[in-house]
């Protein structure tokens, strides 16, 4: 009888140790993932800067170089950048631009949402208009216009 009790107790102790080691290993890998992964994921998914170092573009969008242009002088830089993507969620694009532009110190002036969505941003010395258009065949076009603010005339 005592041997059966000791065997049971041994099985319970062994089972408990095994369970604790699994829990410890699981928690340990979770902590490791929390320390390393979010920085990499955020950096990768945050987007990319093209010709303007304060307008971030989602990595999913395809740059249309033939439709885009940038004009630069010693005093300012202006241009129109065109991007396309087939089957992309427009609301997520709008959320992306609202969040990233605020991070890059742009202020949202106004926005229009519909078949064509327009987001207008400004800084003290320049302005940016982002137009998002859903085409009938499933392609979404993003047009980004950046330019200086006009000088006040007296």
Question: Can you summarize this structure?
Answer:
The protein has 154 residues and is α+β, with helices and mostly antiparallel strands.
Stretches where pLDDT is under 50 for at least 5 consecutive residues are: 29-34
CATH overall fold name of the largest domain: TATA-Binding Protein
CATH class term of the largest domain: Alpha Beta
What's the architecture of the largest domain, going by CATH? Answer: 2-Layer Sandwich
Task: Return Rg in Å.
Answer: 27 Å
Q: Please work out how many helical segments DSSP would assign.
A: 2
- Tell me the count of domains: 2
Major β-sheet, in short? 7 strands, antiparallel
Folded structure, characterized:
- The chain has two domains: 1-45; 49-148, TATA-Binding Protein (2-Layer Sandwich).
- Helices cover 38% and strands 34% of the residues.
- It has two helices and nine strands, in the order H-E-E-E-E-E-H-E-E-E-E.
- The chain has helices at residues 2-45, 90-103, and strands at residues 48-49, 56-57, 62-63, 69-72, 77-86, 107-112, 116-122, 126-134, 139-148.
- Strands 3, 4, 5, 6, 7, 8 and 9 form a seven-stranded antiparallel sheet that branches.
- Strand 8 and strand 9 (139-148) form a beta hairpin.
- The longest helix is centred in the N-terminal third of the chain and has 44 residues, at 2-45.
- The protein is elongated, with a radius of gyration of 27 Å.
- The termini are far apart.
- The model is unreliable at 29-34 (pLDDT under 50).
